[in-house]
Design brief:
Shape: globular
Number of strands: 0
Order of helices and strands: HHHH
Distance between the termini: 60 Å
Radius of gyration: 18 Å
Strand content: under 5%
Helix content: 55-70%
Oligomer: single chain
Number of helices: 4
Number of domains: 1
Length: 103
Amino acid sequence: MILLTINALICAAACLRLITYRRDGARHRVLISMLAYVLIVATGTVALRTLLGLYHAPVDPSEVVINAVLCFAVFGVRGNVAELFRIAAGPWDGHERRKEVSP
């Protein structure tokens, strides 16, 4: 029961953060908007189904962890789904992390 409540609160927080995102001049992208909508509906229904007592499946601790990571990521990018899935420009070869070894 406690995991169910924690999961519902985490999903509700992620849903509310996604709903309250403000573009502030950012360009509108249809696919990103659709992905944001799917995330809002998915996280929102978990919270609503729990609140209404319709969530009958047992909650696994790994599900709570996955939802918590998603929630932290959503808050980290301030609800910007495009930023959540941004891929860095250009290939990365790892040179900046390698230490130069002198012979």
